Beta-glucosidase (Sphingobium amiense), 453 residues
Amino acid sequence: AAPAGTPDSLSFPPGFLWGCATASYQIEGAAREDGRGPSVWDVFSHTPGRVANGDTGDVACDSYHRYPEDIALLKALGVKAYRFSIAWPRIFPEGRGKPNQKGVDYYNRLIDGLLAAGIEPHATLFHWDLPAALPGGWQNRDTSYAFADYAGYMAGRLSDRMKHFMTVNELLCFTDLGYLTGGKAPGLKLLQKDANQVRHHGVLAHGLGVQAIRANAKAGTLVGLAENPSIYVPAIETPEHIEAAKKAMRDQNAMFLTAIMEGRYLDSYLSAQGSDAPVVKAGDMAAIGSPLDFLSINVYTGKMVRADPASPTGYAVLPMTGEAPRMPSRWLYVTPEVIYWGLRAIHELWKPKALYISENGCSADDKVSADGKVYDTDRVMYLRNYVTHLQRAAREGLPIRGYFLWSLMDNFEWEDGYTKLFGIHHVDFKTQKRTPKLSADWYRELIRVNRLV
Ligand code: GBH
């Protein structure tokens, strides 16, 4: 094999940004400390029947106290960057008003620690822990403005030391899944019309957030978001199927990513919603379409599409068969090619200046061996496959700059509690001991050689 760093068909570009990702409510714990206000996830997880086993994020990985140890884990992996999220209710316990300095101090300590370890901080401003005090949550348009104020404030406080800010994480998950199907906080099942308004407030929060960050942050600050578009893979790699999958990407993401990248809702989306279409005020779409410095996507799974001349859309989305391979999370079909086709369609449709994978990873059926180690061979297989398709994207010259593995360590997996674990470090939730899994050893080597291993 060629020595590490030699450009060949297996290498990643020099300086490729390998990282790990986490989110505040999933790892921090310290839910009532230093003036943090309750979030909708505190309320939801403490409501009987909402989360597996009644698990909560009260303690989680206790990263609020153990962050130096977590920085040491990152350093031992050799990652160049760490994506974490900021808990809005630590900064504004009631969502707005007077900032809580103790909350800001925590992120100052974290960021200073990362910089001292030579690791680039990438912050998500909202990864679902909405302050519970905000009346009506995302049903209320005022929440979008409250988010922008908070985002601008934080970027103003942190941009002297870090560049990369993501407004929100995964619009679908905190809008539809919180307000339409109700599996996530706040657990509501609203009518489609009301849920469409929640979606609009979500993209509006992102857009107003971009504007507020630019108005308050130091010059040179880079703004994007971490979105999880529905991704469509051409069933067969022929021009007509490729075109069909690309059209599906644009159409099916009309309420979120397409609106953000194009600054408008597609006519096909609006007409399909009819009288349920959201109320849009003057200026909203311009804010939503604010130009971005980069686009990050969380990539886990996707569907296959074939060209279908008989359909008015020109394509047909194919159902997953019952025997399709899945990881333990019921939704996590193994579809490694989504990483390449997702990036390629986005690049061809909208040409973002820079692309990142802000999350990729999987739950696995982890067992601690007699030697204390987790040999998560299935996770290694999963990651190796996805990263192979990532390398294709890089090799073909797509502007892909980095990859954040979800997740640094086992953590609170939302409605699945601690029953589905995504870490490349095992966490013993009784002792809080972190232990690298086989996948951590694999990732360390990938980063070291910067080519497929
Ligand atoms: C990400 O979501 C999150 O950003 C992260 O916090 C999370 O821990 C990680 O992935 C692993 O789940 O059964 O119909 O309710 C991943 C994307 C999309 C996965 C919605 C779960 C629920 C489908 N998610 N999906 S449903």
In short: The chain has a mean pLDDT of 97. The longest helix spans residues 192-216.
